[in-house]
């Protein structure tokens, strides 16, 4: 390749990087690459927290590569890529999961680069083959060296997890979550009374949050604020911590007391229903995970499964959203008055359609409730008691996700 052609290719590479770094283009790239990875790797597809780690890793990888594409090669491995490898290790997934991420990404990136070096996309006179080869060799080197370093991070983390008490503790927790019966031996390994009341929680950070979060310290502080004892904790990824609190009696707490603190930290707290009995450890945990998944879409900093159980069971799928639009569509105005009407309808249905109980819950006069119910029925075109269960479910869904959750 002549010096003149090489210089022209370098000029084009700088232009390519500038265009590819635009936010919309980065979003398109991350979406296209990660969709292929998720479709190919069920271990990632079934784990929302791991999916978020993947998105953060792909985005940072791509941006770092583009920023240095026209400079002398120097791998700048992003922390989020390391976090993904650690999360895969902490879930005791095989190293092949990590390697497959990069194998799939390798093919997807090559297709993307091939598409963007079509003859019609290049300046006149710029040779396509040389341009594609130059671009691909740099991307391939980036991917190869990233894999080498990430394998080291993965194996180092697996070595730590395999050591002594830490490994036994993690294995015991995972066995209980998978349905194993609680035993005295398990209690001794964990230092946690399994036959007391169990209240599970999940403390997590969103993908845009700095992953350097002191999860354990935060979990202890939040439990103290809620009047709960020191928790058993298990770090499952760079952005997620599981926890359990054991109490002799059913605990009483209000997540509103810590909502501001959780929000200030940029975190999300999900808590399962306090449970008792042999399956309590697992049952409360599954509920906390379900509430945490709501937190991936809803904006509130805390979710108590007891308050969002119905919404959790409804899910966020297309059929659920269609039901909400169909049943509560006439109430989807965005004014304060519309918000008050929806709140009244939900309180009225939850109170067994008792006007006085609804007025007491909303701190308004009973006549205000009667007026609003009449207004609601005018908007709906039928009595509020018709399909009351469907309406209550739809309004509960809107209470959590808001009208914007309908897309």
TrEMBL record:
<feature type="domain" description="CdaR GGDEF-like">
    <location>
        <begin position="186"/>
        <end position="294"/>
    </location>
</feature>
<feature type="domain" description="RsbT co-antagonist protein RsbRD N-terminal">
    <location>
        <begin position="30"/>
        <end position="169"/>
    </location>
</feature>
<protein>
    <recommendedName>
        <fullName>PucR family transcriptional regulator</fullName>
    </recommendedName>
</protein>
<dbReference type="Pfam" id="PF13556">
    <property type="entry name" value="HTH_30"/>
</dbReference>
<dbReference type="InterPro" id="IPR025736">
    <property type="entry name" value="PucR_C-HTH_dom"/>
</dbReference>
<dbReference type="InterPro" id="IPR042070">
    <property type="entry name" value="PucR_C-HTH_sf"/>
</dbReference>
<dbReference type="Pfam" id="PF17853">
    <property type="entry name" value="GGDEF_2"/>
</dbReference>
<dbReference type="InterPro" id="IPR041522">
    <property type="entry name" value="CdaR_GGDEF"/>
</dbReference>
<dbReference type="InterPro" id="IPR051448">
    <property type="entry name" value="CdaR-like_regulators"/>
</dbReference>
<dbReference type="InterPro" id="IPR025751">
    <property type="entry name" value="RsbRD_N_dom"/>
</dbReference>
<comment type="similarity">
    <text>Belongs to the CdaR family.</text>
</comment>
<feature type="domain" description="PucR C-terminal helix-turn-helix">
    <location>
        <begin position="341"/>
        <end position="396"/>
    </location>
</feature>
<dbReference type="Pfam" id="PF14361">
    <property type="entry name" value="RsbRD_N"/>
</dbReference>
